[in-house]
Write a structure and sequence with these properties.
- This protein starts with a strand and ends with a helix.
- It has a ten-stranded mixed β-sheet, with helices on one face.
- It is built from 13 helices and ten strands.
- It has a single domain, classed as Alpha-Beta Barrel (TIM Barrel).
- α1 runs parallel beside α2 and α7 packs across α8.
- The chain is α/β, with parallel strands linked by helices and 355 residues long.
- Keywords: 4Fe-4S, Iron, Iron-sulfur, Metal-binding, S-adenosyl-L-methionine.
- It holds the Pfam family Radical_SAM.
- GO terms for molecular function: 4 iron, 4 sulfur cluster binding; catalytic activity; metal ion binding.
Length: 355
């Protein structure tokens, strides 16, 4: 998977923003011609062309967005787009994206109500915009994905968000376990035991829901799933520099958007070469280089820990993931994977019906 951060410009000021997004675009962003060259370089990965996600900031802040989408398609790539839930995300925009031939639209839901989601996003109306955009996208025949960031403050809303994802007809729920970078450094993470329990709950949801659930920066999800299933479980989770690469607005190539450690720049070297040959990327894929509990873990090949969180916590991407339930202790970690969600107050009204 290749995620290209088209711009860091965005009208929102979300609490968790890894990019510290600002209202203004960086004049050093990759221009249209460089962006199209990037797509052509992505096509050079070989027979199995990577999934490409156009992200931000807010990609709708790029006036050449539709030219870039056309260039991607001419290179044989059908990109997905993750627009911010600002007033720019109106019906006409969604219709243009559908006509342009994007593969999927992702919207963010970090709360199950307007009150909680808008507070997290720092802007009133973002919940309603996300719901309406997802419903309109579905009417247009666009595939829908919902992204959710899990923190100690948002975790209790996961069951209701899971219901919303189903009601919206989404095909995927991508659950991000907070990495304390950017503005997210001020937010409270889950405790390791609770993170493991949430991973177990997500796996059970994955088995019963009509959509797929994948995690971001929580590779222990795979180990938890394997233990619950008693064998290898086919679950999705991203790995920094290992099947995933992030291109910044200015062309810097990072193993992950949550690890601002550059392996090179696409203005100077092809993305394929940076991903396959740079010392940083190779070190992240060499799990024998990991240290601490992650390096000693019998599940290092299955899991490998979040390299981004290890880097955020220690400055060393080969150190241990401090959120891992096993790495947090000196012994084999055993606990019940059930997770009781405590939701304060009365039951919230159905969000879809109220909009």
């Amino acid at each position: 998977m290749v995620t290209w951060e088209l711009t860091q410009a965005c009208e929102l000021a979300c609490d968790h923003c890894r990019a510290d997004a600002t209202p203004d675009r960086d004049p050093n962003e990759l221009d249209t011609e460089e962006g199209i060259a990037l797509f052509e370089g992505i096509a050079d990965f070989g027979e199995r062309t990577p999934i490409v996600v156009l992200s931000g900031g807010d990609p709708l802040e790029r006036p050449d967005l539709y030219d870039l989408i056309e260039g991607a398609r001419e290179a044989g790539i059908t990109p997905a787009v993750t627009p911010a839930t600002t007033p720019n995300l109106e019906d006409g925009t969604l219709e243009r994206l559908a006509d342009a031939g994007v593969s999927r639209i992702a919207v963010s839901l970090d709360g199950a109500s307007a009150e909680s989601h808008d507070a997290f996003r720092g802007e009133s109306g973002t919940f309603e915009t996300a719901i309406r955009a997802a419903k309109r996208a579905r009417e247009l025949g666009l595939s829908i994905q919902v992204n959710t960031t899990v923190t100690a403050d948002t975790v209790a809303e996961l069951p209701e968000i899971a219901d919303l994802v189903a009601d919206l007809g989404a095909v995927m729920w991508e659950v991000f376990f907070l990495v304390p970078v950017g503005r997210g450094i001020e937010l409270a993470q889950l405790e390791p035991e609770r993170a493991g329990a949430v991973a177990g709950w997500l796996y059970r949801q994955n088995e019963m829901r009509p959509y797929r659930i994948i995690t971001v920066e929580a590779p222990f999800y795979r180990r938890v799933a394997n233990e619950l299933r008693g064998e290898d479980a086919a679950v999705g989770t991203t790995g920094a520099g290992n099947g995933f690469v992030f291109v910044s607005a200015t062309g810097e190539v990072y193993p992950s958007g949550f690890m601002p450690l550059s392996a090179g720049n696409v203005r100077e070297e092809p993305l394929v070469s940076i991903y396959r040959e740079s010392d940083l990327m190779q070190r992240l894929r060499d799990r024998s280089s990991f240290t601490g509990p992650c390096g000693e873990c019998p599940a290092v090949e299955t899991c490998g820990g979040s390299r981004s969180r290890a880097y955020a916590a220690t400055g060393d991407p080969t150190e241990s993931d401090p959120l891992c339930p096993w790495a947090a202790t000196e012994h084999e970690y055993e606990y019940e994977y059930e997770f009781e969600f405590e939701v304060a107050g009365e039951s919230k009204p159905g969000a879809l019906e109220s909009l």
